[in-house]
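Subject: design request, 170 residues
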């Protein structure tokens, strides 16, 4: 993997973005691409929104009438990505994280907001690369194992097994 440009924007004002989160997100994005042996420069966009903002996106793009923790909008299909004509970088897509839901989940799981955002970033990056945990139990297991391995490499261990996660937070 070469370089990755991570564009991060805060489009909400309900939760203060903790110091160090932007660096953590960049490290997570880089770790996923490195783990997956992604070749070439890449760009990804990460946006923080509130529950209302992610609810609107979830309804518009997935026809799900409720907020969620994170949404992924991949720009690639089967490993073929759009290319930024100015930089030559592959455009992987957009990640949208609800800081409100991330904070709630961190409290439920008993770990830090930083750890939750790290997990959501790794999870979404895998979606941008074509993984989908909703297609089968095997695909879910493959994605979860990759998430665990990447988070472990980053030193962001999971404090709770995903198997014990409440269903309403999917």
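Subject: RE: design request

Done. Sequence follows.
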């Amino acid at each position: 993997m070469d370089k990755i440009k991570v564009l991060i924007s805060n489009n909400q004002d309900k939760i203060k973005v903790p110091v160090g989160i932007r660096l953590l997100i960049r490290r997570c994005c880089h770790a996923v691409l490195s783990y997956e042996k992604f070749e070439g420069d890449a760009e990804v966009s990460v946006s923080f929104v509130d529950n209302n903002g992610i609810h609107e996106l979830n309804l518009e793009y997935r026809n799900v009438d409720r907020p969620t923790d994170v949404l992924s909008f991949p720009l690639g299909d089967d490993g073929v990505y759009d290319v930024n004509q100015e930089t030559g970088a592959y455009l992987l897509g957009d990640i949208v994280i609800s800081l409100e839901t991330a904070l709630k989940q961190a409290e439920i799981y008993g770990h830090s907001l930083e750890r939750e955002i790290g997990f959501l970033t790794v999870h979404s990056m895998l979606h941008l690369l074509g993984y989908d945990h909703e297609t089968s139990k095997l695909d879910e297991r493959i994605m979860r194992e990759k998430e665990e391995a990447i988070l472990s490499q980053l030193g962001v261990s999971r404090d709770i097994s995903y198997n014990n996660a409440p269903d309403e937070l999917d």
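Helices lie at 21-35, 51-62, 99-109, 113-128, 137-154.
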